[in-house]
Write a structure and sequence with these properties.
This protein is α+β, with helices and mostly antiparallel strands and 236 residues long. It is built from nine helices and 13 strands.
Length: 236
């Protein structure tokens, strides 16, 4: 996959950092110091930001828009672990555990990222307990979520898994429009399959059944949820 990077265009302002959950508890002068240590990278949709197994020396914070975190099997199959969006951070694990990247990061849309090098990150965490606690809170939520995903994969049908993932995506990308809620993100059936650990054929079959039942409508590469109660029923 091609990678196009544009580094260091503009450093973040301290006010911008204050709007990101990880940094909102910081005093303004600490934020200003941190802003001076960060750089910016721009990536096009589909660019690999890093691969699983790469050496990791940088923390990323998403300035805009979204990044998918995936594991890729030897035969090239991708399992999307999570889609992160503006304000989220990633790449902290290899900085904390000293291991290589546990997963790949791929730009899900054209995206701009803020980066912080390991030494600055470690110093920053040591100096700012509120940010360290916020990071632990997010890591705890991600662990809980993965427990749920594992439970789903073992105990639930593809219908339930797809319905749950659509509901989760709605909380991130949902937009009220005439007749329902539009999932305002371009998603291929293969990408949905990669999120729930099933095949594209199964996703196509399940979405067709949801469409026949009047729960969703496919509009080009987007999904319009017509019946949110129906989708909730399928997710149970
Ligand atoms: P790191 O291991 O440095 O590189 C891959 C990153 O993906 C990892 O840090 C985390 O930031 C993120 N990541 C890995 N697994 C998950 C997951 N299950 N949920 C959310 N983020 C993850």
């Amino acid at each position: 996959m091609p990678m196009r990077i544009n580094i260091g265009k503009s450093a973040p302002g301290k006010d911008e950092l204050g709007r990101l959950p990880l940094f909102e508890g910081l005093e303004p002068d600490r934020r200003a110091g941190l802003a001076g240590m960060m750089s910016e990278e721009s990536h096009h949709r589909g660019d690999v930001i890093f691969n699983q197994g790469d050496y990791g020396d940088v923390l990323y914070v998403i300035r805009s828009d979204s990044v998918r975190i995936s594991q890729v099997s030897e035969d090239g199959h991708e399992l999307i672990l999570i889609v992160l969006r503006t304000g989220d951070f990633f790449g902290e694990m290899s900085l904390l555990d000293g291991e290589s990247r546990s997963a790949a990061a791929i730009a899900a849309e054209d995206s701009t990222l803020l980066t912080l090098r390991r030494t600055d990150f470690m110093h920053f965490l040591g100096q700012n307990p509120s940010a360290a606690v916020e990071m632990l809170r997010v890591l705890s939520l991600r662990l809980c979520r993965m427990d749920g995903v594992l439970e789903e994969a073992v105990f639930h049908s593809a219908t339930v898994r797809i319905a749950r993932r659509l509901l989760e995506l709605l909380t991130i990308y949902g937009r009220d429009v005439d007749g329902g809620s539009l999932l305002d993100v371009r998603l291929t059936q293969s990408e949905i399959a990669e999120m729930v650990g099933t095949s594209r054929v199964t996703v196509n079959k399940e979405l067709s059944e949801m469409e026949s039942a009047g729960v969703i409508k496919r509009v080009r590469r987007q999904i319009l949820v017509l019946d949110i109660d129906g989708l909730n029923d399928l997710a149970e």
